[in-house]
Design a protein that fits this description.
29% of the residues lie in helices and 14% in strands. With 417 residues, it is of the alpha+beta class. Helix 11 crosses helix 12 (329-336). The model is unreliable at 1-44 (pLDDT under 50).
Length: 417
């Protein structure tokens, strides 16, 4: 099954691991979609209607392999204390269906709908990477330029590790720059003072994480670094001379069609009216409805599964060479090609699963767990977002049920010669 790329760090939530009406009595046949072996893009056999596919995924699974197969999706959510969830499935380079499940806030009982906002946490990183690719296309900087030639308001100390090779945007987005922070951002109470990006990078108050520093030469190893993406946040605001939420709105969110998404931190009241609350064990996680994040590029996106699916489709369509996309085919290739050390490209984790190659990213903030995974060439994928720190098991179950129902090549064995 799909491997979930998780956050690393002492404060990070690990991302491996309901009032919705589900059809618990549905008898599920063998997968209604089977991958045509050896096919290329869009070579997937026809699937059922959105309603039919939802029923298969939401119901008790057949064949019953025990484990969670004996439970409806509603019962899986209850088992792991997940009050609410949003799911969107990509098929044939389009959103096949999207749906909200359960409640956004156990204290108000507000239901989740397809536009309910969840915190995307680290899925903010590949969305930020797309903005960087737009900047590259506009000639604002190169992926392989020394980051200190791009930054204007702060400089990254090399500490003797950059004498032979500079730190670049490519290395920062692929977690191979040589930074040692490894975090993970716990966020802040919405009413508490929040640091600037420079204060985060220097480890100065009111930042609640340590400074971002070089600890090894670039390209020595892949070491997950939220600090590296925060450096890119600062670089983008320096280059565009705009606030980060505004430049992200102009370069990615509006052009892609992520119509309800925002990087605003904290979330303004108008948008908060339909935003999910952070939970754990089926209960509200604290007095604050959610935490706010100054490290917006690393953890600050508010979105829903439908908008995340639109983002993944934009990458898929650009990669196959469709015209008039936000990024070019060459830019999409940068986001889908590992740099040579580790499994990250510019923003996404890239992995082979079964016979297929997939791009993905997971996320975990205070009280939120989510996952986005999509095929590099075949036009399918899934986005799942939950409003609970125990949502990892539910996310994994949804991804596996979608794989089986739609016949992904993640399930394919090698062809015998």
């Amino acid at each position: 099954m799909i491997r979930l790329a998780g956050k690393v760090g002492r404060t990070a939530l690990t991302t491996v691991a309901v009032a919705a009406v589900v059809l618990a009595s549905v008898t599920v046949p063998a997968p209604v979609a089977s991958q045509q072996r050896g096919g290329g893009a869009a070579s997937v056999a026809p699937v059922g209607t959105p309603a039919e596919m939802q029923a298969i995924i939401e119901g008790v699974q057949t064949p019953n392999r025990q484990g969670l197969d004996v439970l409806t999706l509603e019962e899986v959510m209850e088992r792991f204390g997940v009050p609410g969830m949003t799911v969107a499935v990509i098929h044939d380079f389009e959103v096949h269906w999207a749906r909200g499940y359960g409640v956004a806030d156990v204290e108000t009982g507000a239901p989740v709908d397809v536009e309910t906002l969840f915190q995307a946490a680290s899925i903010s990183k590949p969305v930020t990477a797309m903005a960087a690719m737009v900047a590259v296309q506009e000639g604002r900087f190169s992926l392989d330029a020394d980051i200190n030639t791009i930054l204007r308001s702060w400089q990254l100390p090399g500490n003797g590790f950059t004498d032979g090779r500079p730190v670049t945007p490519r290395l920062l987005f692929s977690h191979t720059a040589g930074l040692g922070d490894g975090h993970g951002f716990p966020g802040y109470d919405p009413g508490a003072p929040r640091p600037t990006a420079v204060q985060i990078l220097n480890g100065d108050e009111p930042s609640n994480v340590e400074a971002v520093t070089m600890v090894r030469p670039p390209l020595t190893a892949m070491h997950y670094s939220g600090g590296g993406t925060t450096i890119m946040q600062l670089a983008l605001t320096d280059v565009f001379n705009e606030s980060f939420p505004e430049l992200m709105r102009k370069t990615v969110l509006e052009p892609v069609g992520m119509t309800t998404s925002t990087f605003e931190q904290p979330l303004p009241p108008g948008r908060d009216a339909n935003a999910a609350r952070a939970h754990a064990g089926g209960r509200a996680l604290g007095e604050a409805k959610w935490h706010a994040y100054s490290a917006m590029a690393a953890a600050g996106l508010w979105t829903n599964a439908r908008d995340l699916a639109r983002f993944a489709i934009e990458v898929q369509k650009a990669a196959r060479g469709d015209p008039d996309r936000v990024i070019t085919a060459a830019s999409a290739a940068e986001m889908l090609s590992p740099v040579g050390v580790g499994d990250f490209a510019v923003g996404f984790s890239i992995a082979r699963d079964g016979q297929g190659w997939y791009f993905s990213h997971s996320g975990g903030n205070w009280g939120f767990i989510c996952q986005l995974v999509a095929h590099k060439v075949k036009g399918y994928g899934v986005a799942v977002m939950t409003n609970a720190s125990g949502g990892g098991q539910v996310v994994r179950e949804v991804v596996e049920r979608v794989q089986r129902a739609y016949g992904w090549d993640a399930l394919d064995k090698a062809t015998l010669r």
